[in-house]
UniProtKB/TrEMBL annotation:
<protein>
    <recommendedName>
        <fullName>Fe2OG dioxygenase domain-containing protein</fullName>
    </recommendedName>
</protein>
<feature type="region of interest" description="Disordered">
    <location>
        <begin position="88"/>
        <end position="127"/>
    </location>
</feature>
Length: 355
């Protein structure tokens, strides 16, 4: 595991800048009225252009997505659908620039990477990621992910499935962007590739505020959205989906977040049964992407087994509840082999500051 003064094998100064998740307004485009019929595709096209896609391709994809989703769809859903369509075009067998059926040369839908099945040059390889993406406001409420919960107020355990609605693709892209911004474009080439090994950016346990180096804040906005979704009152007439004790813990006043920790596991890597070093009383949200991991947790000493698939989140008190990862399961990633998580597991730890 990387020390507090290094990240993926690279020495770093202790005061690196904080990396923020992009919001829906970070691209500088003018705000559009949500009630306008043209607002969603227009706003979506602006965001897609900000990600590096050609204006014509972005406008066409946004318009088609709006037509499929209907008039009630907002810009966030239109962006997600249009982005999936543009990336599907990029993966299509047709070579960018080849003649189209009408005799015109087809425009590339966005930045080009290496062809499927081939890794980019460089000692690390497997460093390809999706185009730049943003975290839509209110995403979790629209996705409405399934979840199961048990435990108590002091030792909650919640397993949320497919939090971004895209099998972890949005989670992975946001983290890749944050790591690239903090560590430089070559960070991926420094990742270990040996089986049963891992890399990471972890908290400095000697720091009074548990800072990381570089300091990361990625996925904290998504964690806040998820806690708000889980703690919302159930629909009238329906039974509570979360046990009362767990719900009371989730509804406690929100605190600040510690710096985000990032761990990247290779197949076969194991994490033994343990307690975290951070003080008790803080919720820990573990976001997963890439390869699945078999998970064990022991709230109040009772074993709970689960498989954390790409896009899943597990919530618990990492100090009070023992937990382990018996195995990282090869061949379970939804990403292509030439993408950075095609044969790796990403775990992103977002933890409340101590009470």
């Amino acid at each position: 595991m990387a020390s507090a003064a290094t990240a993926f094998g690279r020495p770093l100064p202790p005061a690196a800048p904080v990396v923020h998740v992009l919001s829906d307004s970070d691209d500088g485009a003018p705000e559009l009225p949500a009630s306008s019929a043209a607002a969603a595709p227009c706003r979506a096209a602006q965001l897609l252009v900000g990600m590096g896609f050609a204006a014509g391709a972005a406008a066409q994809a946004a318009g088609a997505a709006r037509a499929r989703l209907g008039g009630g769809a907002d810009s966030a859903l239109v962006v997600a659908a249009a982005l999936d369509a543009l990336q599907a075009q990029r993966r299509s067998p047709q070579r960018p620039g080849a003649a189209s059926p009408r005799g015109k040369r087809a425009a590339s839908p966005g930045p080009r990477g290496p062809p499927p099945g081939r890794s980019p040059r460089g000692p690390g390889g497997l460093c390809r990621a999706a185009a730049q993406q943003v975290l839509p406001p209110g995403l979790v409420e629209r996705v409405r992910p399934a979840f199961e919960s048990r435990g108590s107020r002091d030792q909650p355990w919640v397993h949320v499935r497919n939090v971004d609605g895209r099998e972890g693709r949005l989670v992975a892209s946001l983290v890749f962007q944050a790591l690239q911004g903090a560590l430089g474009e070559g960070f991926c080439a420094r990742l270990k590739r040996r089986r049963r090994t891992r890399d990471g950016i972890i908290s400095d346990h000697r720091h009074p505020e548990w800072h990381t180096s570089p300091r990361l804040s990625v996925l904290q906005d998504l964690a806040s959205q998820l806690l708000a979704y889980l703690s919302a009152p159930p629909a009238e007439g329906s039974a509570p989906a979360v046990p009362r004790g767990v719900l009371s813990r989730l509804r406690e006043p929100r605190r600040q977040w510690n710096d985000t920790e990032v761990l990247i596991y290779n197949p076969g890597c194991r994490v033994k049964r343990h307690h975290d070093a951070q003080p008790p009383g803080s919720l820990l949200l573990v976001f997963s992407a890439g390869l699945s991991g078999s998970g064990h947790a022991w709230p109040h000493g009772q074993l709970v087994e689960s498989v954390m698939q790409s896009g899943d989140v597990v919530i618990m008190d990492g100090k009070r509840t023992e937990h382990a990862i018996p195995d990282v399961l090869e061949g379970t990633s939804p990403f292509r082999p030439d993408e950075w998580l095609g044969n790796r597991r990403l775990a992103v730890l977002v933890r409340e500051a101590p009470p």
